[in-house]
Fold this sequence. Notes:
Blueprint: E1 2-11, E2 14-24, E3 29-33, H1 40-48, E4 55-60, E5 63-64, E6 75-78, H2 90-100, H3 105-118, H4 134-146, E7 152-156, H5 164-181, E8 185-189, H6 192-198, E9 201-206, E10 209-214, H7 216-221, H8 226-231, E11 237-243, E12 246-249, E13 252-255, E14 263-269, E15 274-277, E16 283-292, E17 297-303, E18 309-313, E19 324-329, E20 334-337
Parallel strand pairs: 3-8, 3-9, 6-7, 7-8
Antiparallel strand pairs: 1-2, 1-4, 4-5, 9-10, 11-12, 11-14, 12-13, 14-20, 15-19, 16-17, 16-19, 17-18
The protein binds adenosine-5'-triphosphate (ATP).
Adenosine-5'-triphosphate binds at residues 11, 14, 16, 34, 36-42, 190.
GO molecular function: ATP binding
Protein name: ABC transporter ATP-binding protein
Pfam family, one: ABC_tran
Amino acid sequence: MLAVESATVRFGRRTALDAVDLEVADHEIVCVLGPSGSGKSTLLRAVAGLQPLDGGRVFLDGVDQASLPVHRRGLGLMFQDHQLFPHRDVGANVAFGLRMHGVPRAERDRRAGELLDMVGLPGAGRRAVAALSGGEQQRVALARALAPRPKLLMLDEPLGQLDRSLRERLVVELRTLFGRLGTTVLAVTHDQGEAFALADRVVVMRDGRIAQQGTPLEVWQQPASAFVARFLGFDNLVDATVTGSAADTVWGKVPVPEDSSQGECELLVRPGGVRIGGPKEGLRCTVGVRTFRGHHVTVALHPGDGPSLQAECGLRDTPEEGDVVGVTFDPAETVVLPPAG
Length: 341
Ligand SMILES: Nc1ncnc2c1ncn2[C@@H]1O[C@H](COP(=O)(O)OP(=O)(O)OP(=O)(O)O)[C@@H](O)[C@H]1O
């Protein structure tokens, strides 16, 4: 469906996109995520034709898009700077693209009604846009983008403005809707929870390049680097040297999975793999701040030497702040990453 080859965009001396290759298959949902300034929006805008390329090419269904303006690319865009038309009602907003394509009035109304049903706003066609909540406006924007049955739907921070609980609900609805319609989607978000819930494949960007791509499970289980691990919210990272099935670290010997690569590395221990026991077992730590997370508690552990550790504890077995405990590590929850630098 979409093939981006070596796409490069420069703003003055700054390279916002650095020879990026990306493919999106038919019916696939791909989410691009990364920190602010990593090039996500530039990538999306380059695919849409809103941002000229300094190098590389964009193909849709095998056709080079270089000479095609935005409105001839067959894309559905839901971008933050493409707000709804405030003076038109909901139905006219949804039908806008269809009107541009010369679809007759009766057919436009029928399709707009169908799409509003689909996004959970049945019968909202005559409502004023200004009278809708933020979440409802997002749904209308989505219906508008979907109306012309685009080859590829492109979403930039689709749920950006909404509060957390609404986002969590909408993301599930979106995934179900896209699955039902067989929509191919390229979305950009800085919220990793959203990306992981929505995507078949996530693409993590750093400084205009792809740092890693894979299914949400692959990326979560095996981050490619300390950068990706940190971006996913993992903080238990330490320099290490692996020999056999253990790594030497400032936290002492940490067991690692069989067949881990040997030698210098950066070691990640997921918080679920930090086991808290009596003070005589393993690494001696003092319990610091405890943060309630709903289904578990995150506990900061301070060893005498080296960086602090985060542990995930059950609600009932959380140690008290100030307790002295012993820490051991579960090899199934450790990941050997390439050495820093
Ligand atoms: N029109 C522009 N002129 C100059 N520099 C730009 C322009 N647009 C983007 N940049 C720069 O290009 C880099 C990538 O920006 P981009 O907006 O693609 O990042 P992003 O990952 O989408 O960030 P965010 O999550 O903050 O939206 C940044 O350093 C940004 O400052």
